[in-house]
Amino acid sequence: MITRIRTFLRLALLVGAFVGCTEHTQPDPQPEEPEEPEEPIENSIQPADFLSEEKYTQLIVEIVYIEGYEPTNTSKYHLLSLIDSRLHKKGVQIFAKSILSPGEDDFSLETLKIMEEAYRTNETSEQTLVVWIFVADGHYSGNKDDNKILGLAYGPTSIALFGKTIKDYSGGLNQPTTAVLESTVLMHEFCHLLGLVNNGTPMITNHQDATHGHHCSNQDCLMYYAAETSQFLGHFLWNTPPSLKDQCLQDLKNNGGK
Ligand SMILES: [Zn+2]
Ligand SMILES: [Zn+2]
Questions:
Q1: Are strands 151-155 and 139-140 parallel, antiparallel or unpaired?
Q2: Nearest-ligand number for the alpha carbon of 189
Q3: How far is CA 173 from CA 92, 148, 168, 170, in A?
Q4: Of the candidates 26, 159, 163, 256, which lies 20 to 30 Å from 205 by C-alpha distance?
Q5: Which ligand is in closest contact with the Cα of 201?
Q6: How far, in Å, is the centroid of ligand 1 from the Cα of 217?
Q7: Distance from the CA of 192 to the center of ligand 1, in angstroms?
């Protein structure tokens, strides 16, 4: 809807400009400057935009999943609880819809971006920030044999979960339930969008496990690197998803969060 209104406005402006030209003759038109392609607003979103309500008071969570991979209610509940306890937002809406499988076993970053381009219907505007969550029915194409990625935060407002990989590593003997593992990965990726760790939200004290990128050095923390990989076994007690620990919590608060 927002896109339609924008398109309409653009058309209205174009028509206006055209009418203007017919009314006033301009003998020496200036050579037109080449138009810069419009940068999507999503690319300029910062972690503080999620945490504070300075720019955005509303949040839309748009989930698109491939048939058979709808996130569990437990996962949605945990995500909404995290949003409620850490983000200053007056309103939060969550939408989930299914799409048909594109028939890929492996999803590259490029494929994820193509899926987002094709199916994302909400864009950030005015007071409303939108987060895009895609659940793939396959694995990440960049997986290594001994380390499978369960989820990815690949843009300022974009998250992918690899539903098939999550199912492979949950629900069995000595494995967490699918709901617990999926909740963990979903919250972990969302916290990357919140700028953890040292990923757009500055650290108050150094707790970055730099050998594993933007992750927390606290092995019990939700932002410990193993929470999003197949190496999680043995790292966590898996009856419930791990929570954020003090140093991560302080960083969020310091960057505009609760
Ligand atoms: Zn991570
Ligand atoms: Zn932490």
A1: unpaired
A2: 1
A3: 36, 19, 12, 8
A4: 159
A5: 2
A6: 12
A7: 7
Report percent pLDDT > 90 for the chain: 74
106-107/139-140 β-pairing: parallel
Domain boundaries along the sequence of the chain: 46-254
Q: How far is the CA of 54 from the centre of ligand 2 (A)?
A: 25
For ligand 1, the distance from its centroid to the CA atom of residue 3, given in whole angstroms, is: 32
Reported as a single tens digit per residue, the pLDDT across 51-108 is: 999 999 999 999 999 999 999 999 999 999 999 999 999 999 999 999 999 999 999 9
Q: Is the model's pLDDT at 12 over the cut of 80?
A: no
Chain position carrying tokens 């174009």: 14
Helix (H, G, I), strand (E, B) or coil at 217: coil
How far apart (Å, rounded) are the C-alpha atoms in residues 220 and 236? 7
Return the pLDDT at 28: 58
Ligand at shortest distance from the CA of 221: 2
Tokens of 64: 């698109």
The partner residues of 126 in beta bridges, in order of sequence, read none
Q: Among 7-11, 78-82, 129-133, 237-241, which is the least confidently predicted range? A: 7-11
Domain 46-254 sits in CATH 3.40.605.10: no
pLDDT in tens, 124-164: 998 999 999 999 999 999 998 888 999 999 999 999 999 99
